[in-house]
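Run log // design_07
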């Protein structure tokens, strides 16, 4: 049975999953990892969702204020052994619902071109590619996306 927990960046399960995510990205991003790592600190993250299956943390994601009515999706991760079960989709749905409750009207995110599973998930969930924003402007290996919340 899957359970979603709304929490914050101090949650130990979230921190453990983020550590696994960072290790995964260190391999996927290669030499570019240092660039992306600087934008993935947990300091400013107040809204976190952790997914549990039989009391085991199987995925996470977070939202962070970007500007105006826009929130940024951050730190989405599902370990390989738990992929293909809809965990990421459920986390993203919960983050979007929470964003609306907080009066945001749009979600944006950045992922890497090498993150094929992530790009596929976001497209399935209604995200569309946009011009790279902020620190990702001009970064060839980044794909930025957005979704208007209804």
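design_07 sequence
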């Amino acid at each position: 049975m899957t359970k979603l927990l709304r929490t914050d960046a101090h949650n130990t399960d979230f921190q453990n999953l983020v550590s696994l995510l960072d290790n995964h990205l260190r391999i996927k991003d290669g030499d570019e990892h240092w660039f992306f790592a600087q934008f993935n600190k947990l300091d400013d993250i107040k809204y976190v969702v952790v997914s549990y299956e039989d009391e085991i943390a199987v995925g996470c994601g977070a939202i962070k204020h970007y500007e105006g009515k826009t929130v940024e999706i951050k730190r989405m991760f599902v370990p390989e052994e738990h992929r293909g079960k809809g965990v990421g989709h459920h986390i993203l749905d919960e983050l979007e619902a929470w964003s609306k409750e907080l009066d945001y009207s749009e979600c944006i995110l950045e992922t890497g071109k090498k993150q094929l599973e992530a790009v596929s998930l976001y497209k399935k969930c209604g995200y569309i590619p946009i011009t790279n924003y902020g620190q990702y402007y001009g970064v060839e290996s980044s794909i930025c996306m957005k979704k208007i919340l209804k």
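The chain has one domain: 2-106.
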